[in-house]
Structures are given as C-alpha cells and as structure tokens.
Amino acid sequence: MAISDWMASLREGSTTVVLHIDALLQRLEQTEPSLHAFVSPTPERARQDARRLDEQLAAGGALAPLTGVGVAVKDNLCTAGVRTTCASRMLDGFVPPYEATATRRLWEAGAVLLGKTNLDEFAMGSTTETSAFGATANPWDPSRVPGGSSGGSAAAVAAGQCDVALGSDTGGSIRQPASFCGVVGLKPTYGRVSRWGLVAFASSLDQVGPFARSVADAAAVLQVIAGHDPLDATSLDVPVPDYLAALEQEDVRGLRIGLLREAFAEGLDPEVEAAVRRAADHLQSLGCELVDVSCPRFQAGIATYYVIAPSEASANLARYDGVKYGLREAGGDSLGSMTALTRASGFGAEVQRRILIGTYALSAGYVDAFYRKALQVRTLIRQDFDRAFAGVDLLLTPTAPTTAFRAGDHTDDPLALYLADLLTIPANLAGLPAISVPCGFDSQGLPIGLQLMAPVLAEQRLLQVAHRYECTAGVMQQRPVAPLAA
Predict the structure, then answer these.
(1) Confidence at residue 484, expressed as pLDDT on a 0 to 100 scale
(2) Which residues have CB under 8 Å from 270's CB, separation 6+?
(3) What DSSP element (H or E) covers 428?
(4) What is the pLDDT at residue 330?
(5) What predicted TM-score, i.e. pTM, was given to this entire model?
(6) What is the pLDDT of residue 325?
(7) Which of 47, 201, 361, 481 is most buried, by the most CB atoms less than 10 A from its CB?
(8) In terms of DSSP H, where are the helices of 1-137?
(9) Any residues with CB less than 8 A from the CB of 110 and at least 6 apart, and which?
(10) Burial class for 380, CB neighbours closer than 10 Å (0-12, 13-18, 19+)
(11) CB–CB of 109/64 below 8 Å?
C-alpha cells in the first residue's frame, strides 16, 4: 500500500496501525527464513509503537507524515537501544546509546521500526555476501544476490516485509540493489541528509537515502529525513523543498535528458541496454528532449573510487582497536598484538582487503602517486558533470551493467564485483543526487533499473521525472511471488 493510500485509510478510520504492522510482521515471518534480509528484527518494539500510535489517534492526536509506516533500517545506522552491527563480528552485540539523526526524524514523524537489515560488512561490497551473519537472497530469485551493500533493505522492500527502508550509498549501495530487486532507490545530494549516527565507511562519499516501491513513497521519506543537522559538519544548511509537490507537476515537456555515452559501452548486458533505451524513448514520448552527452572521465570513476574509498576506510576503521568498544580478542603480549588479533578476527576478508589498499595508498612515498592523484581525477569528473549539466537537465544511464547474478558467481573475483558499481560510483564522487527506477525485466524475469542523475540539490527535478516515468510506463505491475519458500 502506498504511503498516501495508507494515510488516507487512517484518516477515514478504516484500519489501525496495529493491523498494518501485524500484517507486515506476518509477512516478515513468512519470508525471512529464505530471504534473510534482517540482522535484528524488532517485532516487540514494533507492536508496542503501533499500539501507542493507535491510542494517540483515538485520543484525537494529529497524523504525522509517516504515522504507522513500517520501516526497516540498514544495520550501519545507529539506533538507540537496538543492536547495530554493520554485519561484522567486530560490532556483534554493540548497542548504541544514541540515535542517528535520520532515524530519529523517522520516529518523530510516526514511523515504526520493524528491524535492522543485513548488509555487506561495513557496507563494503556489492552483493550482501560479505555479511558476517550470512548472505541475503533476492526476492525475485533466491539463488541470486540482491545487490549491495544495502541488499537487506532492498530485498525487504521488494518482498513486502516493510513499507520503506533506509540504506546508505557510498558508491551505489542504494541504487544498485534497488536495480537488482526492482524497487526505487534514491541517493540524495551529499549533505542533504545528515550522516550523524551513520557508521562511517568513506566520509566524503557516504549518504543516507530511502528505498521504496514507488517514487512517491521515496519522496515522502526524503521529505522527513532531509535537512540541516548541526551535529553533522557536512550537512548542508539550505531549505528543504516540498518534494511531494514536485510530483504533482506532470508536465515534463521541454526537459533535456542527456544519454551518457560512456555508460552505454562494452560490458553492458544487451537486455539491460535495450530496456534502458526503451525507457529513454518513453521519456521522449512524454515531451522530453534526448541529447547525446559525453563525460570523458566517467569510466575513470571506478579506479578513482577504489583509491579514495579504501583510504578513508582505513582511517575510519582504525577506531576498532579492541580497547574502547566492540570485539576484543584475548591473548597477545602487548597492546599492539591484542589489536592485531582483534582486527584479524573481527574484520572479514573484504574489509581487510580494503583497509590494506587504503593504508598502502596513504603510506609515505605513495600518497602523491595514488591518493592525491585520485583526488585530482575526482575534481575532473565533477567538472565533466558540470559541463554536461550546462546543457541538460538530467543524465540517464543504466543503474547496473547486468541484472542480479547468482550467489557465489564472483566470490573469488573482487574486480568483477567492483565493476558492478561502474555506473553508480561517479555520482558519489561528484556528490550528485541520483535515483534508480525499475524500467523492465530481462528474459529471465529479473528487474532492470534506470538511473537518473541531477545537478546538486536538484532532487525535485529528479523525483518529478522519475515519478512521471513510473506512472506512465507501467512496467512494475509484477511483484515477487509470495510467500517465499522456507
């Protein structure tokens, strides 16, 4: 049920929050054995919050923007009193004493927490297979990955375990799993949503955003979580527009949509390309003008990212030393050996790999050749986007080069996994808002995602065009079969 329909039902008094949350929890219980989207479900808290909200409404309380909406939260966002693990042994059992700003704003808006969702460990991955607590399955085909790193949130929304979910996007970790799972995934402008309480991976790239089954629901969540936060030094102190009002502007005639040439290159699945080009043609039929656009350094994004992100990760993850909180391994005859034992045991192979890459790139004698050079290329990529947006309103690409692949296909090939984010990474490097919207299916019935990118802080335009496409293209009447087999 769309959030707008749900709120209308509450106003009419035709349902209750308790009934809605019970239905979601029942769906979660039916599907979770085969899906494994959640690390920590919170059914008791959800039922308690639902009863409280119903009591407030019965007493004449006003409806908040998200009253009774069932939300799942990626398990790298701190939730006071609820375990936050980052899907890592390093934080198994860690219960934060404070709430992330994004989640606090959800609860203040009346949303109900259904649980914390699975992810690649410390958000480092593209499949949700590196989780210390086991992999998540794709609801369309449980033998396939849901994408990553926010695969648990994407799968939970696709399977109907929740109404909406939060994820984080460092190099595509919202948009790529949204594409694989056939849902909407939005990465806002860097700084549009507070990162306070988000466990840091790469601080100059991380951004919190929503998953939803419609663009309108994603806009409703963004409306609540966006805005300046004095607790986050990177939070932008700018007004928050009315995103839902932008959806009512149906006329997209005259908008210029740039087809990014470098995104339609070698390695792109032909079925993905065909679906995305059909989506572009549909936008043209609505009155948009299609323009061929080039960002020459677009494909340099992946090499640039895999210097900058691991470098920032190596600094951010240095705090996990076995002393202050989290895992502490016994043994060792010194502080250094205890820390080494703790990190070797607490971090998985992919996290260790990225820490080593980042530490090497920052080491004496190499920082100029690698890290500073990557920062220079990042600036050039941003300048390419600036030039492109001087002539177009939005850029259009596939979200991912392929549809969801089978679990284990690339476990021993890190480079193949890194390439899954080839088309999403550049938006993070430039701090741009970007959205993935379902645009069809391949011959195996797997969803395909269309990515739209906008200039900084142009989420309204992004949502308007994505919503208009979604409402007129009619590609997502099909949903995953329910219930999934246990």
Answers:
(1) 57
(2) none
(3) helix 425-430
(4) 84
(5) 0.96
(6) 81
(7) 201
(8) 3-12, 17-35, 43-58, 101-108
(9) 53, 63, 64, 65, 66, 67, 68, 69
(10) middle
(11) yes
Domains of the chain: 3-256+433-473 (3.90.1300.10)
Show the tokens assigned to 291: 């323009």
Measured CA distances, 462 to 2, 60, 355 (Å): 20, 37, 35
- Residue 352: count other Cβ atoms within 10 Å of its Cβ: 16
Average pLDDT, the chain: 95
Cβ-contact 51, 68 below 8 angstroms: no
Q: Please report the pLDDT score of residue 486 as a whole number.
A: 45
CA nearest neighbour of 381 among 308, 272, 436, 450: 308
Burial status of residue 256 (CB atoms within 10 A of its CB: 0-12, 13-18, 19 or more): middle
**Residue listed under structure tokens 């260790």:** 352
C-beta separation of 34 from 72 below 8 A: no
Question: Among candidates 388, 370, 421, which has minimal Cα distance to 297?
Answer: 388
pLDDT-flagged residues of the chain (< 50): 486
pLDDT digits (tens, 9 = 90+) for 451-484: 999 999 999 999 999 999 999 998 877 778 655 5
Distance between CA atoms of 67 and 7, rounded to whole angstroms?
8
Closest CA to 116 of 140, 94, 141, 146: 94
CA distances for 142 relative to 115, 138, 231, 484, 485, angstroms:
21, 5, 40, 9, 9
Q: Are the C-beta atoms of 45 and 82 separated by less than 8 Å? A: yes
**333 class by beta-carbon count within 10 Å (0-12 exposed, 13-18 middle, 19+ buried):** exposed
3-state secondary structure of 193: strand
CA distance to 137, 313, 317, 366, 450, per residue, from 183 (Å): 15, 28, 31, 41, 11
Strands 70-74 and 112-117: parallel
Spatial distance between the Cα atoms of 57 and 11, rounded to a whole number of angstroms: 9
Could you tell me if 209 and 169 are in contact, meaning their C-beta atoms sit under 8 angstroms apart? yes
Which class for 315: exposed (0-12), middle (13-18), buried (19 or more C-beta within 10 A)?
middle
* Catalytic center residues: 74, 149, 173
Render pLDDT for 78-120 as a digit per residue (tens, 0 to 9): 999 999 999 999 999 899 999 999 999 999 999 999 999 999 9
Q: In what order do the strands lie in the sheet with 164-168?
A: 38-41, 112-117, 70-74, 164-168, 208-212, 184-187, 434-441, 447-453, 394-398, 256-260, 289-293
Assigned token pair, 265: 């290159």
Residue 181 has, within 13 A of its CA and on its CB side, a CA count of 39
